[in-house]
Design goal:
It contains 12 helices and 23 strands. It has 532 residues and is of the alpha+beta class. The strands form 6 sheets. A 7-stranded mixed β-sheet has the order 14-15-18-13-21-19-20. Helix 3 runs parallel beside helix 6 (200-216) and helix 3 (103-115) runs parallel beside helix 12 (512-530).
């Protein structure tokens, strides 16, 4: 198979357009062509008068060697599709246990199930929707649990992702992750889009389908089950203690893959109390910023902004700040909503999501400032969680209770005054917002870096500092403030044989794809260990 890179395509191109371009580039007749498949496609909007697609394609030919011999260097290159992981036959004495059903946990369990290991996947609860019944539950004294769902997390509790699949990591298993999503109902374009996206509305079915495959292959899924601790003997894991529908019990196993996400504070405390090695790590904190989607699309695409092939525009911005921390955007949601992501009573944090169509009136993104362990105020490994919680509690109070979020207009933040009224941009956050001064819940250094960043980002994306753009507080869970130490070769926790810390919550991933890949790699490591 050959790959052709950097093909320029008009916005209105068709498959016939693409095939004709390939035939011209390769200088071959149509009967020599077997197939043309998009490998990657992105938008080139550097020249607003000539917005177009740039694509890479994979081409199968009847006589590839002959074509390659007469092509000029650089026109095409040989490529081999990445292969799925090779699964050795496992030899577990007891079924491995996977704790947590985010991307890391699901893909770890799926990999184990496909190997014939019959894993036990533990989920603490059922899927929830904080925007509906669970807001009322919290208002009446209930508590949303950080592991109470089966969705994927990006910066908050796991129920609130919309399936962004961009990643800066390099792994032969990325294609496996994307292909698995497609096989379970995700749109096929995630296989070639430069910024693939599933959408909250479609992601729910994809997750359920993956879970069903795990079950069909002999795995077990335990809902409404909380892991309350590890069973250990010396430096070896021998199982986990659980509460299943309120009843205490044990699950004996020599392999525990811990994929609990970055918001399971109570589980982290339990692990620390049991001697699991963990250390503080940097992360980031800030707000969600909302603009009219039309403003973003016009700024990015110019006169072509309404072309149906483009959809809602996104952005990714970053600036260096004088204090060296940096301010950047993260998890940008075109045509999306700012959503509640609280996981503990009396605390408030937010996230963002988009449906597959990305047709909402606003664009939003996390606007974050880097934070360091020295900001936590203590050298205890879990001090970052305590600091996060204190800021979330301050945001809850500033919003007036009832999980309304404090918001501030960009113009007011830059002028150093509280917001008393909203302007052109209407917040999407539910159950509602309270105009406020975010200086009352965020540290001064974050406020100052946000102000610096907004001004500089306006030079990168005209209109970013729109006076009526809305800042919704607080986004505190971009990643975990803790890393569980693990051996680089075996992937097991330092000093505890049989425990595999996995994914974003353990400090080894930064998004859906990287977490899913880490789940696959950890499962392969567990299988290899079982065979020793």
């Amino acid at each position: 198979m050959l790959r052709l890179d950097n093909l320029s395509l008009p916005l209105g191109y068709t498959q016939e357009t693409l095939v004709s371009l390939v035939l011209k580039k390769l200088r071959i007749p149509a009967d020599q062509l077997i197939s043309v498949t998009l490998s990657k496609r992105s938008v080139d909007a550097r020249d607003k008068a000539d917005v177009h697609f740039v694509a890479s394609v994979d081409v199968k030919l009847r006589n590839e060697d002959a074509v390659m011999k007469r092509l000029r260097p650089g026109i095409a290159s040989r490529c081999t599709p990445p292969a799925p992981p090779v699964l050795a036959k496992p030899a577990f004495a007891r079924p491995p246990v996977v704790v947590g059903a985010g991307p890391a946990g699901l893909f770890a369990a799926l990999t184990l199930a496909r190997s014939g290991a019959n894993p036990i996947l533990i989920e603490r609860g059922k899927p929830v929707d904080i925007r509906t019944q669970d807001v009322a539950a919290m208002q009446s004294g209930g508590n949303l649990d950080p592991e109470s769902n089966v969705q994927f997390g990006e910066g908050g509790a796991g129920a609130f992702s919309d399936g962004k699949l961009t990643t800066g990591t390099k792994s032969p298993y990325i294609r496996t992750v994307l292909k698995t999503f497609v096989d379970h109902g995700a749109p096929e374009d995630i296989l070639y889009l430069a910024k693939p996206h599933i959408g909250t509305d479609r992601l729910k079915g994809v997750v359920a389908s993956i879970r069903n495959e795990i079950i069909s292959l002999g795995g077990q899924v335990m809902f409404e089950t909380k892991v309350t601790g590890l069973i250990t003997r010396g430096q070896h894991v021998e199982g986990v203690t659980i509460l299943h529908h309120g009843q205490a019990g044990d699950i004996l196993t020599g392999s525990v893959l811990l994929a609990i996400g970055h918001s399971a504070r109570d589980t982290m405390q339990t692990l620390f109390n049991q001697g699991v090695m963990m250390v503080q790590k940097p992360f980031a904190m800030g707000v969600r910023i909302e603009h009219p989607q039309s403003l973003i699309s016009k700024a990015q695409y110019g006169p072509a902004w309404q072309h149906p092939a483009l959809g809602a525009a996104d952005y990714k911005l970053a600036v260096h700040t004088p204090d060296g921390r940096g301010t950047y955007t993260f998890c940008m949601c075109p045509g999306g909503e700012v959503i509640a992501a609280a996981s503990q009573e009396g605390g408030l944090c937010v996230n963002g999501m988009s449906y597959h169509a990305r047709a909402g009136r606003n664009a939003n993104a996390a606007l974050l400032v880097g934070v360091r362990p020295e900001d936590f105020g203590d050298d205890h490994p879990l001090a970052g969680f305590v600091w996060q919680r204190s800021i979330e509690q301050a945001a809850y109070r500033l919003g007036g209770g009832s999980y309304k979020a404090p918001v501030q207009r960009v113009e007011d933040l830059l002028a150093g005054r509280a917001t008393s009224r909203l302007g052109e941009v209407l917040p999407t956050y539910q159950p509602g917002v309270t105009p406020a001064d975010l200086r009352s819940c965020l540290p001064d250094f974050i406020i100052e870096d946000l102000k610096f960043g907004i001004r500089r980002m306006d030079g990168q994306l005209h209109g970013f500092a729109h006076p009526d753009a809305v800042l919704t507080g607080v986004e505190t869970r971009s990643s975990s403030p803790v890393r569980l130490n693990r051996d680089r070769t075996t992937l097991m926790a330092d000093g505890l044989d049989g425990l595999f810390p996995v994914g974003e919550g353990a400090g080894y991933a930064g998004g859906i794809v990287s977490a899913a890949v880490d789940g696959i790699v950890a499962a392969l490591a567990a299988i290899e260990r079982s065979r020793l």
